[in-house]
Specification:
By secondary structure, chain A is an alpha+beta fold. Chain A has five helices and five strands. Chain B is an alpha+beta fold. Chain B is built from 13 helices and twelve strands. The N and C termini of chain B lie far apart (about 45 Å). The chains are: A alpha+beta, B alpha+beta.
């Protein structure tokens, strides 16, 4: 058992965990933050996306012990215009992927704002086109197929 | 997941000392591959040595014009770095063509080099796999092998190396710097990966107690680019990919580097094609001849024979685009 501290949604939390526990399971099972979802548990769907020091990661592939003293933000710690935009643009149906989509979108907007390129970025281009949004959000699957609404919601906030 | 002891290494000396002292220990970086493999019980280390706190996160310009990349630089940070985007577009593009943004934010350069194959039979504990259990056979040969290798294959394994980044590094003549309790050595990427032969479980030139500390990339003056062909537009492994650098002077190829992904157990440096191209006119005909020469020894299976023609076409298309660019034809891509 390892004892470690982690800042979660602005509050320092203490955890007693085995080293093989994922950040996802630590958040859900120990800290009762069940907003972060377990989809594939193998880094393929993005439902477990959280922000670590502002960068989006898949919490299912992260061992919690590796995130000692880091600053983790989950959907429970987020108040952002993207949430209202998801509601207004029907950016979800069942909602299971939504917390991951929202964390991912916030991380994505920060990456784009910092000038990070994507696979579809043309030389010299700076805007967040629909193609850019779809490419940059490709790590978040939505099996209901609410992609059009998700893209519209992000477009509105990015404007 | 099998329980393991966890050690966080504060410095390189401690990391290599612990890995040498503990039998069946593994380093962990971003964890994007190892955690998954441990969860599937494919990797079962007794000790996991966390190296993410080691000071190997710098990207430095080298005196000779090259770049040195610390092993713990995140894939996303490398792809976005000014030096990489301007001097090695092929490397930036290759990284951005792989995985998802979340995974690239976690994954390290050293870990990317050591990715295991995504062969479904390697992942399936009920299947025969010489890579997972030496001597057990290969269910991919004669099985579902659409994604499998056509070059450098053996009767024991037809798995592919899944990395995009490493295909670019192969084209760029990168060198891998490794450290152990015995000291430091440099391994050219061309010698870093092994073909499966009769021992597909042995994948690299790394000893079990060696730590990758950096990757060095020499200067590149030729225009370069990466092209990836896959089953969906984003977030999928390559069926075929091409990393290329091409310099054309007065219509003649004066410098060329070519590597293929998705076709072999290692990032495949296309030396045969390069030999055909160097000094040849930069025409579609030369590109086609070069591509054919490289794929000549390819061995297809019922599901993946298409890769042989696909690889040739992707080589031609990638070289044509680079050639057009050096002639000022068309737009940049």
């Amino acid at each position: 058992m390892v004892t470690l501290r982690m800042r979660v949604n602005g509050t320092t939390r203490s955890l007693d965990i085995e080293p093989w526990v994922s950040l996802l399971d630590a958040l859900r099972e120990q800290l009762d933050l069940t907003g972060t979802k377990k989809g594939c548990d193998q880094g393929a769907c993005g439902a477990c996306t959280v922000l670590a020091d502002g960068e989006r990661i898949n919490s299912c592939l992260a061992l919690a012990v590796q995130y000692e003293d880091r600053d983790i933000t989950t959907i429970e710690g987020i108040t952002h215009p993207i949430q209202q935009a998801f509601i207004e643009h029907d950016g979800f149906q069942c909602g299971y992927c939504t917390s991951g989509q929202i964390c991912s979108a916030i991380g994505m907007l920060a990456e784009h704002g910092a000038g990070m390129p994507s696979a579809v970025t043309e030389p010299g281009a700076t805007g967040l086109s629909e193609a850019e949004i779809r490419e940059r959000m490709s790590g978040n699957l939505c099996r209901c197929g609410a992609y059009n609404g998700i893209v519209d919601a992000i477009k509105e906030v990015a404007r | 997941m099998k329980p393991f002891a966890y050690v966080s290494a504060p410095d390189v000396a401690t990391a290599v000392r612990v890995i040498a002292a503990e039998p069946n220990a593994k380093f962990i970086g971003g964890g994007t591959n190892l955690v998954d493999l441990m969860r599937e019980d494919i990797e079962q280390p007794d000790t996991v040595v966390d190296i993410t706190r080691l000071p190997l996160t710098e990207i430095e310009e080298l005196p000779g014009g090259g770049v040195r990349v610390g092993a713990l630089v995140r894939n996303s940070h490398l792809a976005a770095h000014r030096l990489i985007r301007t001097r090695y577009p092929v490397l930036s593009q290759a990284i951005l063509a792989g995985a998802s943004a979340q995974l690239r934010n976690m994954a390290t350069v050293g870990g990317n080099l050591l990715q295991r194959t995504r062969c479904p039979y390697f992942y399936d504990g009920a299947a025969a796999c010489n890579k997972r259990v030496p001597g057990s056979g290969c269910d991919a040969i004669g099985g579902f092998n659409r994604n499998h290798a056509v070059l450098g294959v053996s009767d024991d394994c037809i798995a592919t190396h899944p990395s995009d980044m490493c295909v670019a590094l192969a084209a760029l003549d990168a060198t891998v710097e490794v450290q152990s309790v015995r000291g430091l050595r440099r391994v050219p990427l061309a010698d870093f990966y092994r073909l499966p032969g009769g021992t597909p479980h042995l994948e690299t030139a790394l000893e079990p107690d060696e730590l990758i500390t950096a990757v060095e990339v020499p200067e590149l003056t030729a225009p370069s680019s990466y092209r990836k062909v896959r089953d969906r537009a984003s977030y999928a492994f390559a069926l075929v990919s091409v990393a290329a650098a091409l310099e054309v002077t007065d219509g003649v190829v004066t410098d060329v580097r070519l590597a293929l992904g998705g076709v072999a157990a290692k990032p495949w440096r296309a030396r045969q094609a390069e030999a055909v191209l160097l000094g040849a006119p930069a025409t579609d005909e030369s590109f086609r001849r070069a591509a054919e020469a490289e794929l000549e020894p390819a061995v297809g299976r019922p599901d993946n024979t298409f890769k042989i023609e696909l690889a040739q076409r992707t080589i031609v298309a990638t070289l044509r685009r680079l050639s057009d660019r050096s002639l000022g034809v068309g737009r940049m891509a």
